[in-house]
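Lecture 7 notes: from sequence to structure.
We start with the chain below.
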Amino acid sequence: MAHYAELNHENIVIRVIPGPDETIQSGLEQVYLMQTGNIWKRTSYNTIAGQHPEGRPFRKNYAGIGYKYDAQRDAFIPPQPFPSWVLNENTCLWDSPTPMPTDGLYYWDEATVSWLRSATDEVTLANG
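Predicted structure tokens for the same chain:
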């Protein structure tokens, strides 16, 4: 089964629906266009960060509501989570200015442009 993303006039995904597993050449995207008046793009449920378990990445990422379709990259790009984050051209995902530490639970603090340890993680560490 394939999935198809409906785009608004700004190429923002407004919904994703399942559909027949056909190739792009089959014209199913064109059929959906004629039925709704919006642009549709096929998306792959198993594609994340330009990777696919069977080695067939498709449009960099599975489309989600609010994602933008970038025609030049032929990719679905999620909304930018924070102004300081930068688009990774290889994955079409957003990278933080510094990597997240791996020694506990952290959250991004845009005011300090850094990762801060979660209060939940600090309680867990204190209780051992």
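Points to note: Residues 28-36 form the longest helix (9 residues). Strands lie at 2-7, 13-19, 39-43, 68-70, 75-77, 86-87, 94-95, 106-109, 114-117.
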